[in-house]
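REVIEWER CHECKLIST
Item 1: Sequence provided? yes
Item 2: Single chain? yes
Item 3: Sequence as submitted:
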Amino acid sequence: MMSLLCVSAWAGTVTFTFNTVDGLTELGITAPEPSAGTNLDGTYTLDGVTMSFTNGGTATRIWNSQGALDLRVYNGGSLTFTADEAITSVVFTSANNSTGNLTPNSGTLAGGTWTGSATSVTFAAGGTTRISTIEVTFGGGTPQPQTVATPVITFDPVHPYEGEEATCTITCETEGASIMYALNDGDFQPYTEPFTLTETTTVKAKAMLGTTTTVESEVAEKTLTFDPTVANIAELTQLANNTYFRMTGEAVVVYVYGGYLYIKDDTGYTLIYNSTVDGIAAGNTISNLKGKVSIYKNLFEVANATYDFEATQIAVEPVEMAIPDIAAANMNQYVVIKGVTLSDVNGRNMKLNDADGNQFAVYSQYFCEFPEDLEKTYDVTGFVAVYNTTVQIYPVSFDEAVVAEPVITVDPDFGEYEEAQTVFVFVENMPDGAVIKYIFLPGESTREEVEWQAYDDTEGILVEESGMLVIGVFDATGEVLGGLEGEYIINTPTTGIEAISGKAVASVRYINVAGMASDKAFDGLNIVVTTYTDGTKTVTKVVK
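Item 4: Structure as written out by the authors:
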């Protein structure tokens, strides 16, 4: 580097380099790790030229984007260059040509090059500006007549929360300048010391210099917003994008992958993005969460998060959901979709398929490996995500599905009875699309002699005589998934010489709902009229 000489006719050039480790080291800045940043701190001087800064919505910082380094100044921030002699040129280079977001307080900026003549020049950022290098030329002429620098308004804290206080400080780099300020639409008044704010306020400030002839600066304006306090995740997810907040309630950590952190409470789930707290793990409890709402491609996230945590071990189980029931309203929820097949594998994308033909998108955000065998059925656990208009799953595990065998019971149970029985069949773990069938084998009948009958759960199975009842559960292809068999012994008298309740039965008549009578039971509801030899009768109902 060339040294600055205090001779106005001599021109010197210094270059601030932000896109190399050596350039950052020369400035005393530590290069950040990939996907991380190093906030600027203080001022940086090279050979007589000093660079200072202010923060915008995000701290002015060096950012490492997978090995590509640059300086990033965000909306509302600024860079100021000062020298003992006039600065005549400032040349910016940018990887994405974003220097058009900068506005100088004097001179002209065009195509990334500023020209003018001033011992101090400030560039205000009207949007995110990425800068690789800055070349400053100075000492080439005489400064223009003195102007007064625009005051700088700062708040501490930058993002106070409802119920807190913030201190407003106003400074001006022009030596000897006096500062006037106004609150909201009020009148300007002298600024003598920092003051306290307790509600959202717009602060205006201007600086003045001189006695007989007064030089006045441009008016600075900055609004302090008191950010909301929410009690839980449900209230948090109602906040607008870019809203800073604090949450008073606790939440449990569900899953951690790098800087991604899923949390839940009794009201819902959310995702913390780019978390930098070390040692956090699933099952831990976090509290005092503060951050900024960041909605990326319609996915709700929390950025710039700070929080406290306790190393608890609280297990969180995923919520079982079916594909048709998953919607954007389930965003960031921890779910498991059971009994699905996999298809359409394409890089980190694939599809889930249920038994009814429904499909659902999958994206391996956290590099969860897809199973190789696509013929098997799986239980897929992950988090519901949204990308633009697509609702999808970010999977964290694929487990081969364990299909529980059907468990069949009957009521009444197998055994010996004094009259005909209507038997009802109950099946636990009934697979989708499966059906129940049965055969009844009276006397010496064999299975080959009897056809399977479809079971009707509204009518049951009428067993009027002794025999073997065989029940099966069949899938759509006819394969037997489970079965149960047992014997019923029916001792109902069939002649007038057999006794029931100590009386001899003379006859039994069955009457259906149409009023038709028969010696045999009709299908459906029967009124059974039993006549005894002593002339008495009993009436009962039987369903066949």
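Item 5: Key structural point noted by reviewer: The chain has two helices and 46 strands.
Item 6: Recommendation: ____
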